[in-house]
Amino acid sequence: MEHVWGTAAIWMALALVASLFSIRLGISVALVEIAVGVFGGNVLHLEVSEWINALAGIGAVVLTFLAGAEIDPESLRRHLKPSLAIGIAGFVFPFLGAAAFARFVAGWAPDSAWIAGIALSTTSVAVVYAVMVETGLNQTELGKLILAACFINDLGTVLALGLIFAGFDRWLVVFAAVTALVLWPLPRLTRWVIQTWGGRVSEPEVKFLLLVLFALGWLATRAGSEAVLPSYLIGLVVAGVFQESRALMLRLRTIAFGALTPFYFIKAGLFVSIPAIISRAALIGAFLLVKMVAKLVGVWPLTRAFAMERRSGTYTTLLMSTGLTFGTISALFGLTNGLIDQSQYTVLVTAVIGSAVVPTLIAQTWFLPETAPAGAREPGQASVSTLPAMESSSLSEGED
């Protein structure tokens, strides 16, 4: 028992250090937690116990749920046509491109190549959302469109991870049927739970949502799929409820980021090998380039087709090229299930981290759209107070 508490203290100390560095540097805490995990694995030689695995798994499920719940249903409906087109292209092109590169250029086995395609097909809702808030673009139609497209992109990633490696047997049928039956009445049931028992110290509404997440997560893993698949869908269907009850969202976010996700992200960094990064730096760079080029080929022409001006289209393409949470979840799934080895895992996670940083820096430095509020712009850049004719008609084609 002493060993358990000592291990818990070390991991929470690393999580605290990551939080402080994140605040100081002004970057995503997930990135810093992964970096701290790399330090813990390569310098401190930390190991992962069964209970840490459990906490990390719960953290991934709750984080995936929160990502789905962040989507504004009204924005998704209003921008349905462009967000569907951009989101699907943002998934398909890097998924196939990275998988083909891994299989036929890097010489990876088929299952390893599929994991590479899935891990590099993602976009990062966390990174994009932070950028949107920082620049004020989350209040514009452009920002809402980008966030909606990110959701569609990541939904493709989660579905691919859940279905490609699922065991197609009676359990998969049971999982699909039960999930459909649960999701349909879930928004009304969640509202009823909040109205009937909400606001109590015992937090029954939080426990209710965790029950749904854990039950469907168990069914997903029993079917040979991944627990994050139903989590993302649950988040989406209750997103409207969370728009009405932001306090509930904040409580769940506190639980997740305070006590659960640090174990997930530190664990993700723990398996990254510094010697492998050094020896395979060229391959890491190649995977990052493949992802960015594939996103450019798939997304940028669509931004022009939907009448975005050139600067906004490039900015959208770059933010769609980011990746973090689902990329690391996919890579860790591959490592845990023996689909990739530690060296391949290191290559993928390092490329994913690079995709969270490089496209964001390029976008913010050179392509911040004219739609950004004046206070968010760099000195010397023109300030524009109106949304360019991005052709509100194009952006609103999903409206009834």
Automatic annotation (TrEMBL):
Keywords: Antiport, Ion transport, Membrane, Sodium, Sodium transport, Transmembrane, Transmembrane helix, Transport. The keyword Transmembrane applies. It is a multi-pass membrane protein. InterPro entries: Cation/H_exchanger_TM (IPR006153), Na+/solute_symporter_sf (IPR038770). Residues 13-362 form the Cation/H+ exchanger transmembrane domain. It is found in: Membrane. It holds the Pfam family Na_H_Exchanger. One of its GO terms (biological process) is sodium ion transport. The chain crosses the membrane at residues 12-39, 51-71, 83-106, 112-133, 145-165, 171-194, 206-221, 255-278, 284-303, 315-335, 347-368. It comes from the Bacteria. GO terms for cellular component: membrane. Residues 382-400 have a biased composition (Polar residues). Residues 374-400 are annotated as: Disordered. One of its GO terms (molecular function) is antiporter activity. This is Cation:proton antiporter. It comes from Thermalbibacter longus.
